[in-house]
């Protein structure tokens, strides 16, 4: 659906932020763009809906260069939720803000209202349409940004570090919302440096470092490549780190390195039953 070919981008001050990115994003995927600060995540995202124009290389949307597709079509098909909700929200009330996108798409007023109500319900904020945007918490603002994008019924939703500034409950409820949307068929791309979330939610990972894709693959493939992680100044998910230490330093006989608490639990229970150390009931 989205194809990035040899993408380069240099900012006006001479910073070369992207240095030859090649990446393909298939329909229905939940892709993590994983990279430390300054690795080029935001710059890459801004190319995916034409906000920035490639210095060299191209971004193809269903085989067509993004800059050749009409803005209106791009914006309605690819929605971006930026890191700071205050950069994205601008209307006085929640309802007006969420209505902005579909109104701009030229939809009839009743269709706009229908979409606003549906999008607010999807993000669990159905009762907030009349609320002042300024009166919302950070987590609520984030949800309204997502609703504003959903109201355009996009095929792809891209989020730039969406969990930044959220409390643990906020992180989990936002991630589950994104997972639900992905299951409904929306292709999801999320830039993040929160490694522990990745194996729980994402199907593919692209590790970004110095404006290049250092590694691409499934969580199992990417987290199996510690060298690339270290090069990108990243680490394994915490659970995986513990299991890795148990395997390499303590020579515990692990079949594989579990990436999540659930997998680790199964592996530990297997080992315990082998060693017959569990109380028999
Ligand atoms: N507006 C800008 N002008 C100049 N350099 C920038 C600008 N925005 C980002 N950069 C630089 O481009 C590189 C990539 O930044 P960015 O895409 O924001 O990374 P990330 O989102 O992964 O933290 C960094 O070196 C950053 O300093
Ligand atoms: Mg960024």
Helix content bin = 40-55%
User: Given the helix and strand composition, which structural class is it?
Assistant: alpha/beta
Tally the structural domains: 2
Per CATH, the class of the largest domain reads: Alpha Beta
- Integer average pLDDT: 93
Strand % is: 15-25%
Give the low-confidence spans. none
Distance between the termini: 53 Å
| Global morphology | globular
The CATH architecture of the largest domain comes to 3-Layer(aba) Sandwich
Provide structural commentary:
This protein starts with a strand and ends in a 6-residue tail after the last helix. The chain is built from twelve helices and ten strands. The protein has 281 residues and is an alpha/beta fold. The longest helix is centred in the middle third of the chain and has 16 residues. The site of adenosine-5'-diphosphate has 12 residues, from α1. The site of magnesium ion has 3 residues, from α1.
List keywords for this structure.
281 residues, alpha/beta, Rossmann fold, 6-stranded mixed sheet, binds magnesium ion
Outline of this structure?
The protein is α/β, with parallel strands linked by helices. The protein has helices spanning 41-48, 71-77, 85-88, 94-104, 109-122, 138-150, 168-183, 198-201, 219-223, 226-231, 238-248, 261-275; strands at 2-10, 16-25, 30-34, 56-61, 64-65, 78-81, 156-160, 187-192, 204-209, 212-217. It folds into 2 domains: 2-89 and 157-233, P-loop containing nucleotide triphosphate hydrolases (Rossmann fold), CATH 3.40.50; 236-276, no CATH class.
